[in-house]
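Um, can you check?
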Amino acid sequence: MVSTVKMPRVPALVATISTAVLGAVLLAVPASQAQSPAQVTPAAPAAAAAASKATEKVIMDVDMGQLNDDAVAMFMLANSKKVDLLGVTVVSGNTWVEEGTAYSLRQLELIEQANRVPVVAGGGEPLMGSRQATLAAEQDLFGNVEYMGAYRRERPASYRELASEPYGGYPRAKPAKEAAAQFIAEQVKKYPNQVTLFVLGPATNVALAVRSYPEIVPLVKQVIYMGGAIDIPGNTSPAAEFNWWFDPESAKIALRTPFKRQLVVPNDVAERVLYTKKEYERVVGGPNTPITKMFRDLQGPQFEANPARQSFVWDAITSAVFLDPSIATKVEDRYLDIDTSFGPDYGRAIGYGPSRDRDMNKPENFPTGTQKVQVLFDINRDAFWNLYVDLMTRPI
C-alpha cells in the first residue's frame, strides 16, 4: 500500500474515448524496447508438429507475475495438446508491462517454449493516463483501495532493469518488436474465426486493438475475461474488481465490442475456489519438472511459514473452463457494462439480466450498446483441481 499524499482535484474522467486518444496511448513501450528486434526463432520440429495438430489457437493477454495466476493459466494452456499458443501479450496491471514482459519471457524459457511463443509488450498505462496522481484522492473520497498492483512501486525503465532479478535470472529471449495491439490484429487476420483472446489483466491491449483495427472484431472466435465483481463487492475498491478498476475505460470498450462470444470469469466464482497446501502438495508430489520445481522454490517457504495459507487462483479458472467446458456448472447470460464515471463506482461491473418477458414481446432491459455475454458463476471443483494438477505436473 502506498502512503497517502494529498493530491489536487482532477477533472472527471470521460466515458467515451476517441480513436485519436487511443492512438496516442501507443507510447506504452519505451523506445529502447520498441526498437529491439524480435527474438523468435523457428519452432523445433516436435513443437511445430504439436502446434499443427492443436485444435485451438489462443492469444493470452496478461499482467504477468512470477508463478501468479496468469503464469499458471499460461502453463495450463502451453501444456495442453489442444492449444496452439500464438503469443503472449503483456499489459500493466498486477505488474508493470516491463516486469510482466520479463516474467513471461523467463517462464516460457523454463518450459522450453520461448523459441516458439512470442512475447509482445503492450499498454503500460491505462487509456486515460496514469492514475497515480489521483490514487490518494480516490482513497479519501471513494473508500479504501485494498490492492493497487503495479501502482505500489515505480515503473521500471526496461524489462532488463527490474527492482529484483526474475526467478532463474533475466531472460535470454527478447520481446517481439511490434506493439501488442498490432500483434493481436495480425494474428486474428492470419487465422480468421479461429483465435480465442484471453484477457487476464486490464483490457488495455484489446481496447487498443479493436479501436485501431476494427476490422478484426467479426474475425475473433471468442474472448474470455478474468474480471469484474458482478453480484458481490469489489476486491480493490468497495465497488470494483482489480482488473477492471485499473483501466475501466478499456474494460467498457472491450465488453461493448460485438464479439461473437464473450465469457466472463468474475470474482463471484474466483473468490470461492481456494488453493491450499493440499493442492500444493499434489503438484509438488508429481514428477520433477521446471514447473513443479518453481512451485517448490516459490511456494514451499510460504506454506512452511503458514501451513493454513489460502489463496485464490483467478486466471487458472479461465484456462480450465476453456480446456474442459464441462467444468463450468453455472453460466448465466448477462448484459454487462462498466461504470466509468470518476466516483465511488469507478470500475464497477454492472450486470443486466435478460428480460423475463420475452414471450410477451417486451424489449430486454439493458442500456443501448451493451452486449450479451456469458458469466461463469460456479465450477466443479474436483474436476478443476484434477485438471490443474495434471497440467502442472506434465513432463516438459
